[in-house]
Amino acid sequence: MKAWTRTLGLIALLLLPLTALAEAQIQSVRLWRAPDNTRLVLDLSAAVKYEVLTLDKPLRVVIDMKDAQLATQLDGLSLGGTPIRALRSGRPSSDILRLVIDLSAEVKPSSFSLPPNAPYGHRLVIDLFDQLPQTQVAPNAPPPTNSSPTVSLPSGQRDIVIAIDAGHGGEDPGALGAKGQHEKHVTLAIARELQRQINQRKGFRGELTRSGDYFIPLVKRPLIARQKGADLFVSIHADAAERKSAFGASVYALSKGGASSETARWLAKNENRSDLIGGVDRLSLNDKDPMLAGVLLDLSMNAKLASSLNVGDKVLSSMGKVTALHKRSVETAGFIVLKSPDMPSILVETGFISNQNEAQKLNTAQHQRTLASAIAKGIFEFFQKNPPPGSWLAFTRDGGQSVATAAREHRVQAGESLSQIARRYQVSTAALRQHNALKSDLIKVGQILKIPAL
Ligand SMILES: [Zn+2]
């Protein structure tokens, strides 16, 4: 009997530390608010088995984690502007840690776990997607009868739309500067300034893919640009190199094959890590988004590539007048964010944040303004020579004569959708469909569409 107790005691002693090791600790909780969702990130000491449930009365989402322990406070998060009222924890049973998210509005949760990826360890990501208000029209509902465009520009005089993509954001800080500067803040500041300058120019409009500090997967960025009817996609970055003395700006375009240099290859590899760092639910991306599948399809992009190199060249030489250049010509590599068949796309490295001198400059409003105006100048120059049909710039270049009539036809290009073309000419999709006697929204490359008058 005595021996038995002793044995049991020994087993218990041996088991205790093992159990303690098997427990995953929640070391911190972070929160990011995006325009259409709220992301909660749990930093864990090890992977956990978990389950996410939505409950009502009161409305809440609970996350049950097996063999987990809370090793942080839940009350330090700023919940303003989110549908989260409060965060709390409990233990429905001894081996389950329950995280309760009290809600003020309905959300659709989506969750996934991520393996360690510098600068992060194990993570559990919970995205709470806002639900559309009841009054909003479902995507495939018939268009309202009086769907006149909101912008009252004459037909054939639309704005040229520049999508400005501030690199990184939220979970993904991007490169880190010598004094702790985050690339994601520098890129957003320059992107905002670039938008301001573009909007000041008649015939142009700047649209941001990201307008705050939140994460957007790389593959979704060109999608947002496409939804805004962009003619050009410009991704803004400020990167790091292992060699701390490296400095100067560079401009990149997509290459379908190998990279044009070792730096280009290294950089593309680094930039493409964004989705691993920021966290992307691969399954939901691949399955549920037909538009995304379209972007990932490697369509014939040669024409877009030539335009990308052309606009990249103009931006680079314009930047060369205000800042040092890292490379004298546009480089190419396999950047995921540039893989859009729709529009010419470039990635601008505004400088090296890993270089102490350059990092300091990149953080000043004055240098950000100077860089933005150089980028804008290159973009204006490109479109001055290549104004898209139907744009105000094309209209004025051709003397404002008969262009409106010439622009009444549109030849469908690879990757274009009917709704995108409708947006470009500022007519409704319904009007475009009717004007061309289309039975569905399916269009073919090379097909000529007649554009209705407003
Ligand atoms: Zn970057």
TrEMBL record:
Name of protein: N-acetylmuramoyl-L-alanine amidase AmiC
Protein source organism: Ventosimonas gracilis
InterPro entries, sorted: AMIN_dom, LysM, LysM_dom_sf, MurNAc-LAA_cat, N-acetylmuramoyl_amidase_3
Record keywords, A-Z: Cell wall biogenesis/degradation, Hydrolase, Periplasm, Signal
UniProt key word Hydrolase: yes
GO CC aspect terms: outer membrane-bounded periplasmic space
Compartment list: Periplasm
Gene Ontology MF annotations: N-acetylmuramoyl-L-alanine amidase activity
Region (Disordered): 135-154
Cleavable signal peptide: 1-22
EC number(s) reported in the record: 3.5.1.28
Family, similarity comment: Belongs to the N-acetylmuramoyl-L-alanine amidase 3 family.
Enzyme class: hydrolase
Domain LysM, residue spans: 408-451
Catalytic function, reaction form: Hydrolyzes the link between N-acetylmuramoyl residues and L-amino acid residues in certain cell-wall glycopeptides
